[in-house]
Every structure is written in structure tokens, then in C-alpha cells.
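mind reviewing both lines:
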Amino acid sequence: MMQVGLLHPLFVGEVSGADLTRPQTDAEIAAIEAAIAEHAVLVFRDQRLTDEQQLAFSERFGSLEHTGGTGISKPGEQRLHPAFADVSNLDVNGTVLARDNRRRLYSLGNMLWHSDSSFKPVPAKYSLLSGRVVVDKGGETEFADMRAAYNALDNATKAEIADLICEHSLIYSRETLGFGDLTEAERATMRPVRQMLVRTHPVSGRKSVFLASHIGRIVGWPVPEARAFIRDLTEVATQPEFVYRHVWQPFDLVMWDNRCTMHRARRFPPNAVRDMRRTTVAGDAPTMAAAAA
């Protein structure tokens, strides 16, 4: 029988009694969805999933995003099924990418606070990350509770951000790290999209701030003022009491709700093997349409 214990006072549940390698009943899927609506992040230990099992489990929560058309990988460079985001540091032959490898440098953007696929017109719902090979030092994943962040704002700031619209793009987050080495074709796939800065969760009804390093503009604001303001909000949202740091154990599966959390990877030795495989459940609607509704 599935049980959920707390790993953080505000959010993050550790699920016991679940075997995700076998098909889940409708009741089990409903229990997981209820748990993630409450806790926003769920940790499942020792889930020795094959790719096929991870895909099957993930698809129980909705349609999956495919990685084609995003990022900088070229045909023939993918080592996984297109429904996986390869969050490893490995090439198609399983060799660790060189320190100056272009794909590795681009992927360092994952070390900035972000929400998966906020740069897409319909941002992601859930992400499910499987730690197939984890590193001994570093490589943690940190999560921040955007519901707690919203609650921490004073009433004047809540009123100020209520109707703000932000532009999200992979271009913005990569240029933050000094990675501007993008072709015109790549930039064309990364055109900014607009998202509401405040979201209301469709299940819990709780409000959250929808922040990400992908934000480069606030509609109607001067760019320097917008970026300084987003930086201030991010500092509030990622203060220690709102953050959980996950130290990976082999075959952990961590599932999180992108609609009310941010996350980031932490640094690890560049020559260490780290094989992490993420499936991503597509969102239901653009935030602009959701806000209008």
C-alpha cells in the first residue's frame, strides 16, 4: 500500500510501497496525482525502470513531450527515444562529453533555476527524472516551492504581478551563462513565448509565481527593470526555507509539477558519468488562455 512521508516541511513527499516497474491501477495513478497536487514533488526510491517502463508509467498522466525541435542536438546525436530528454553528460556511444563540447556547454543552463518547457506555448505539466547512474559528489537537484514563494510576497507585490506577462526563451537562459553560440536556425526554434507570471493550480487552487531563468522580458516594461525585478522575485522564491535539495541514490525516480515548482541541477565533476533520463508530461493549455478562463 502506497504511503507518503514528508522530506521538507512545506512540500516534497517520499513515496513508499510503490513498484513502478509494473503497470499501475487507476486507483494507484489517482493516488499519485492527489499526492503530487499536495506535495508538488514526489520521490520514489529504488525504481529500477527500463526505458519502456518509464515511458509506460509516464504516459498514464497524459501525452508526453518529444525533444525534437528544441535545443541544439542534431540528427544522429540522440541516444534515447525522442520522448526522453537526455539529461546526461554522455554521447551516443556512452562516452562522457568533453569539457568544451558544445552540447555540454549548452546543457549547463540546467544549473539555472527553471521550470521545464516554460519556453513552449503550452508549458509542461509533470517531469519524471530517473537516476540510472548517479555521481558520488555533487549532481544534486534542488527544488523550490513557487506556492510558498507567492505566499511570501506582500500584498502590494501580489497586486503588481497579478496580470504581468513574461517572455520566456532558451536564448535568454543560455545567454545568461555567456552561451550565445546559436545559429539562426536554432534561434528560430527558440522564439520567445508569453506566459503569465502568476498561475493558479487547476487542482489545488493555490497560486504560485511562474519564474524561470528563461524569462528575458516583462511585456510593457523596460528590459533592465524587468530583469532586475525577476531577479528579485527569484531571490525570494529560492530562499533556503523554500528549497529542497535531493541527493540522488541509484534508481531514484523524482516526479515534480512544473506548474508550481522550479528546479536546478548542481555542479559535479566534469569527467564523472551521470546518466539521468527525463520524461515530460505535456501541459493542458497555455497560461494565457488559462488566465483568461
